Amino acid sequence: MSKRNQHIKQILSVVLVMILLLSLLTSCGDEENLEETAILNAISNTMPEVRQMLDIGNENQIVNYLTNWAAARDSVKISHDEYGNIIMSSKATSDEYKDGESVILHCSLDFTDTLKTAREISTILYVLDKSEEHGFIRAVFTHMTSTSHLDGAEKISKRYIEADNLLSLDWEGNRSILVGSAGTTTYKITDPLSWNEPKYPKAYEIKIKGLPGGSSADSSIKQPNAIKLVGDLLATLKSKSILYELAGFNGGDSAYNYPQFADIIIVINQNDNEKFISWVENAQEKFEDKYGEELMEAAEAEAVAAYEAEHGTAAAVNYKPDIEPPYSFTCNPVELPSYVMSDENCNRLVSFLYAMPSGTYLKSEEGRIVATTNLGKLSTKTGTLILELCARSMNKTTLDEITTVVDTVCGLSDVKCEIHEQFPVWEAPEFASDVVEGLRTYDVEKPETLLSDPSQSYFNRLSESITRVYDNDTKRRTTFKRSACAIFHERVPEMNVLTFGLSEEKLAKEILVIMDFLKNINNPLGQTNAE
Questions:
Q1: pLDDT per position as a tens digit, 487-520
Q2: Which residues contact 34 (CB under 8 A, 6 or more apart)?
Q3: Torsion of Cα atoms, 377 then 380 then 381 then 383, to 10°
Q4: What is the model's pLDDT at position 304?
Q5: Rounded to whole angstroms, how far apart are CA atoms 522 and 376?
Q6: Long-range contact pairs involving 116-119 (C-beta distance under 8 Å, separation at least 24)
Q7: b/e map of 286-310 (b: 16 or more CB within 10 Å)?
Q8: Residue 390 has pLDDT above 50, yes or no
Q9: pTM summary value
């Protein structure tokens, strides 16, 4: 990128943030919103400058900026480590709070989502600067790299993340608290392949391509798994006694992502050729009937979003994209390959794909997704079968159960399986087992029923602050995405951990929630310092 274009991008970034903040300020004219107006005025002086540095991507500038900011305030100390993590601290504001519970405020230094990161940094700085009643606070800004978004959280010294409570701001939402995240286990399955000359004369390439893909952490994506779909077709052909051989099977690019494509080279017995064509056509029709409409809707929504980003929301209101289907399911004759897998290898692969679960693994009684599996990558290009599978679960018991199922299927199919990578589960406390996309409030007249688990008390205190500021219910969330809180929870199990969502529209209120929470964290439920 040229310096001129970079400069233009910086200017536009500042202008957009200023427009957002000014629009919010104009809605705060009532006397009751004076405090919120003051907050937005202060944020408008910080946020554009922080985002500009994030847009440039100069990490040293961020360190220098925060160092200078802290140096101008006697109450705030700052340091940073060799991994790019930045740590600030602020002592208790008075003897009343000196022996109170300590709180860590956390955000990730995400240079890919600069608006969100600037909002989080500015919020923490405002709270450290303006909050007049609080116990010991540590602010932790963890570094993110292009290869590992949670690198800083994993490497930061444990002494910086030890406290009574941790409140991360790595979330976007209105009045929402993130209380848990899924753990993941990825498996690498291998099988050495033997190759023979083909026995049959007709070769075809079956290919599914153009699917949306995306992270398997996004359970809202409705699409077929291309690898599983082709595997099911192969199992059907075997059940119909259609004789075939495989010369190759490839699909997907990562265990963590839904495969966007899958293709095979299949060699057919001459006598089964017509039956083979008939069953493939049947599979194509079923594919179109089951997924065609949803895939087109997803493609059109993406086209509208791209048009809106370029031309603006008003122009996109009546925009109707005229696009060709981005996906295809084809079967075409190809040249006969020189080699095919042995019958033994082929049978093992087909049996494995048929038996291995892929998609939603478990739902709660309320119909919410608890665990998923994803056949994300399959390759025979190296002469060895390599398959990568990812399991995600909101609780460790089910994640361990999936490992047992994977081991069993691999054992029955006589293929080798090893755990490739694991990420911890951050389990929602038992009282919030129904939290996914759910709502919950508690009865302040009977707080003792919720205090047996410290994490319950922590959630309820934050929820109480939200209620005081918003006079409304609290939204509780869990996510299938990896979170820094899962790492903090694993490294310091005794620490209470939650994530509080910030939003563009209600940022001033959310800052007031955090300040109210810090002020009242040590008081019994239902009571405040004001009382």
A1: 999 999 999 999 998 988 899 999 999 999 999 8
A2: 28
A3: 140
A4: 87
A5: 47
A6: 116/172, 116/502, 117/50, 117/51, 117/54, 118/17, 118/47, 118/48, 118/50, 118/51, 118/54, 119/47, 119/502, 119/504, 119/507
A7: ebeeebeeebeebbbeebeeeeeee
A8: yes
A9: 0.82
